[in-house]
Amino acid sequence: MATVLNPYLNFRAQAREAMGFYQSVLGGELTVMTFADQGGMGVPDAEQDLVMHSQLVVSDAVQLMGADVPSHMDTGGDIANGSISLSGDDEATLRGWFEGLSAGGTLGVPLEKAPWGDSFGMFTDKFGVEWMVNIAGSPAA
C-alpha cells in the first residue's frame, strides 16, 4: 500500500450528511461506520447512529475521512478543520468540484486567474469546512 495523506474532518451530528454531499460532488466509494456498529463505544444511546468513522475513496490520490464528535467530548469550542486544498492541472474536474462543493456555502475568493499564473479560489462549504482550489496555469514559453 502506498503512503497516503488525507484530511480527517470532525463534525457535530453532520458527518453522514457532509460525507454524502462530498461523495455526490467528488464521486468515489463511501463507507460509514456508526458508534452502534462498534458496540456503542461509551456514547449515549441518542448518539449511537452518529458516524464513528467514514471514508470516501475517490482515487488513490483523493481520500477524505470524517466522523461525528460525541456531545460528551470537549472540542474546545467550535470544531475547526483547517482548510482542504485541491490542486492539479485537470481544469474541468477541479472547476466542477469547486462549483459543486461551494454550493450552499460562502464564497471567499472567486476561482479565477491569480497573480502567480494559476487559477485559484476559496470558499467555505455549507458544513463550515474551508476549501482552496488551485488549477495549474500553462507554463510560460
TrEMBL record:
Protein name per its UniProtKB record: VOC family protein
InterPro entries, per the entry: Glyas_Bleomycin-R_OHBP_Dase, Glyas_Fos-R_dOase_dom, PhnB-like
Domain Glyoxalase/fosfomycin resistance/dioxygenase: 12-133
